[in-house]
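Title: Prediction job returns without error message
Component: structure pipeline
Severity: low
Priority: P3
Assignee: unassigned

Description:
Job completed but the reporter wants confirmation the result is attached to the right record. Sequence as submitted:
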Amino acid sequence: MKASGEYVMGKIRVLVVDDSAFMRRYISDIINKEADMEVIDSAGDGDTAIEKVTALNPDVVTLDVEMPKKNGLEVLKVIKNVSTAKIIMLSGLTTEGSATTIEALSIGAFDFVAKPSQVSFQRINDMKKDLISKIRHAYEAKNKVIKPTIKKAQREEKVLQSAKGKIEAVVIGASTGGPKVLYDIITGFPGDMNVPIFVVQHMPQGFTKAFAERLDKQSKLRVVEARHEESIRPGVVYIAPGGYHMLVTEGKIVLDTSPPVHGVRPAVDKLFVSAAKVYKDKTLACVLTGMGKDGAEGIRAVKAKGGLTIAQDETTSVIYGMPKAAYETGCVDMVLPDYEISDEIVRLTKTG
């Protein structure tokens, strides 16, 4: 099994798809400067992209969201059926682009990179680093070796049963791979959930609104992008807006632009720590798939107050970074596959 950062199959083979010749060259130049990856070809339209994916079998495809004829979403659906390549969407900050990107993530795109809306050295440099990092993580995810999970609940079932029906708030954190899991979890909640649900999904500004709107259309619960000083109501799912930390206080949501934590804003830790202070042992926290360690400190805070904690298992995590960091704190009560998390949250929050 390869160690992290080692690529035993040689260079990461990338296909670049964009209808702009300039962007194809620009993205290709970024990738080809890295010693561990190479652009094996490019395509300027969806049909050509599908042909080249089938013929060349790339490891990773960078796919423009907004293209004429077949858009990125249509191309993604076909590629998912003919290839194991991981797809990274490249999206502009338009209303249509962000909505299409969210849909792409929900049906299996690995992740996305936001094209800078303004030309500046910092924004362009941020995009370059984001793209390279996600290509590497996509390659690792494509080739990872899954061991059967042996991690079980650390807390005894009788303790879980004693907490059943006492939960007053659910907090959830996710990053890479999170949108699809969150979609499945939130749309699986019944309409009579009587607790507020707070969600941090690592996303930039412009995408969290589209994410909340998509979930709201498909869910039995109301799903909103959170607003500053908004009153907290049971049965509502609050999505932290990109670019803002989301904290909970007594009865209200607070958004702030204090410095990023672990390089991200919103941060899962900020939400979890604030929720633990307010809801104490009546907090249920869940860490889902994602790179990094955001959420681990928050899990400690929730456990210190007597709350319950869940981490997604390695097998169903696209990136087993955040859940692993949470588990290694020793403060995780349950390790569950993604398809069991919604039912478990419902079981623990139901009062009847």
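Comment from assignee: result matches the submitted record. The mean pLDDT is 89.
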